[in-house]
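Entry for nicotinamide-adenine-dinucleotide complex. Fields follow.
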Amino acid sequence: MLKIGILNGDDIGLEVVPEAVKVMRAAADRTGLVVDWLPLPIGRRGHETHGHTMPQETVDALKTVDGWLQGPIGHNAYPRSDPTWINPPLRKMFELFANVKPVKSYPNIASIHKNVDIVFLREVTEGMQSGSVTIAGTGEFRPNDDITIGHRVITRRGSNRVARAAFEIARTRARKRVTAVHKEPVFRLACGMFAEECRKVATEYPDVAFDEVLVDGFAMKLVMAPQPYDVVVTTNQFGDILTDEGAGLVGGLGLAPGLCIGERQAMAQATHGSAPDIAGRNLANPYAMIMSGKMLLEWLGHQRPLPAALEAARLIERAVERVIADQRALTRDLGGEGDTTTMGAAIVAALD
Ligand code: NAD
């Protein structure tokens, strides 16, 4: 049995997370996977019911789950006095060290490139993002009005574990290739340590091909010819930029799912924000949240291991592909005539 938390988040989170749960529940029913679902307040609802956007009750409950779905957090809507820092502390607190982000094109969805199928792993607990690398305070400071100093943290442990996760994922894929992206010739110590750990881990996976590309050249190759890449592993800030670039190549934010993984738990989280401009109108595209949920089942299926969870993930992927091929139930941003709930319902129907 799995225990999975449901954190709707704000704005369109209240629409797309329930669709993801519907699809996951239906897939789990079909494969005999037993899931104990645990709804937990966060964001504006958390503030209204518990006086805080990240209630302590939610944090305590998250310690007891296998994983959770987290909708986008609509910081803009919070009272100014409220501490709105949610995602970086949660990742840090639960050591969700890698953000796994697939970038996949579909033949009938408008995109800059076709035949793209890349999985990015972005390290998210260290690196250069001040909010992600510190549990209190920030990684930036300004000693006087003319100087600002920012730091970058790279550790052997952090680099080794994200590299290992990349090789484990590559092993489950057809092409079995990992590309490490860094800039070692310039950042000799920081990128150097990251690259050394990637090379060390590569020797333990002789069945997976390994290469390294410098980040500036990689950014160009990704735009011009992304097709050869399979699994790409990189540090926090490089990954922040490259994963959005990747999403842009295959159709944008609505098609960008993600899973933050740790040693024992994972958090399914789409890349997009809470889209207040379309919230409450049943217009939001639920693809990214549904596919993030599918990734959670797949990861738990491999990790525990649980064949019924792996099968549920496979069912969801196939159903999504069918609905995309048929096109009619897709939301308008994908060129369809459907809305959030019709797209979710079509995916549930396509599970059979
Ligand atoms: P956004 O991603 O919410 O929206 C950008 C544009 O994309 C908007 O036009 C929106 O309508 C559209 N869009 C986004 N998701 C969509 C979907 N699923 N279907 C259809 N269209 C979609 O970014 P923003 O407007 O910069 O931010 C809005 C709020 O979200 C802010 O409060 C921001 O802080 C927050 N945010 C949260 C997260 C998170 O919690 N992970 C991430 C990014 C932004």
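NOTE: The mean pLDDT is 94.
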